[in-house]
Amino acid sequence: MRLYGILTALLLAFPFSSALDVLLPLYLYPDEGASAWSDVFFTIESHSAVQFIVVVNPNSGPGTSSHPTDQNIISGVSKLNSYPNVHTVGYVLTGHGTRNHTVVKADVDAYAQWASYSGANIAIGGIYFDEVSSETTSTNYDYYNASATYARSIMPSAQVVFNPGYRAPAQLFEFCDVMVEFEDTLAHYQNQSILKQIPDGLKSQSAVQMLNTTEGTNVTHLVGEMKNLKAVYFGYDDQYKVWNKELLRVMADAV
């Protein structure tokens, strides 16, 4: 009995972490008091052993001010930051490498300035670069290397996520912490051998974002196939603006 008590105490003090992170694009407007994010908060609270990388996206980016002026955004982000198992990253569009790099840097600057907001803890811990180009050119590599390097230079310990949405060349992995290797519907995933296409040495950096996950989908089985990846997400729609509380629970249970 004493041994059991010791083991129980150790488990409570050092809970197991899950094998996979949840990469959660939070594009839905939070509404009054962040009430529209309540299902997300509940899932995070009830799955303390799961790490959530939450993509914050106020307006296809940070907006034009040095910090959010919308109190609902402030309330929502500060609540996210209150959870020890949440890492927030800010959404930045790259336009497949065509968006002016000065503008990209300005978005990164804006997110970095959120840390200086005195009214609440809305600091952002990294950048989620969207519409990443997978072109294998030196120009493309230089663009994304510079983007990631800049983010890390002004955001301490910044986590950098690249989202090309499909297979990326190995060299791009050198510049990011997480690479979204698949972002499409469940139907398209079932018709692809995407996991087999990812080299074993890159799987621990790779993520899958599933769209239009239908009711009745065996999410637990699919997550089981992805256990050697870095992160997953199963979305109910294709815009990350509709939540299904049960789907969130099943996904978080499975990882």
Concise synopsis of the structure shown:
With 255 residues, this protein is an alpha/beta fold. It has helices at residues 2-13, 38-45, 71-81, 101-113, 138-154, 170-173, 186-190, 194-197, 219-225, 245-254, and strands spanning 21-26, 52-56, 86-93, 126-130, 159-163, 178-185, 206-211, 231-234. It is built from 10 helices and 8 strands.
Outline the structure in words:
With 255 residues, the chain is α/β, with parallel strands linked by helices. It is 36% helix and 18% strand. Helix 2 (38-45) packs parallel to helix 10 (245-254) and helix 4 (101-113) packs parallel to helix 5. The longest helix is centred in the middle third of the chain and has 17 residues, at 138-154. 41% of the residues are buried. The model is unreliable at 1-16 (pLDDT under 50).
Mind sketching the topology for me?
Blueprint (H helix, E strand, L loop, with lengths): L1 H12 L7 E6 L11 H8 L6 E5 L14 H11 L4 E8 L7 H13 L12 E5 L7 H17 L4 E5 L6 H4 L4 E8 H5 L3 H4 L8 E6 L7 H7 L5 E4 L10 H10 L1
Parallel strand pairs: 1-2, 1-8, 2-3, 3-4, 4-5, 5-6, 6-7, 7-8
Helix pairs in contact: 2-10, 4-5, 9-10
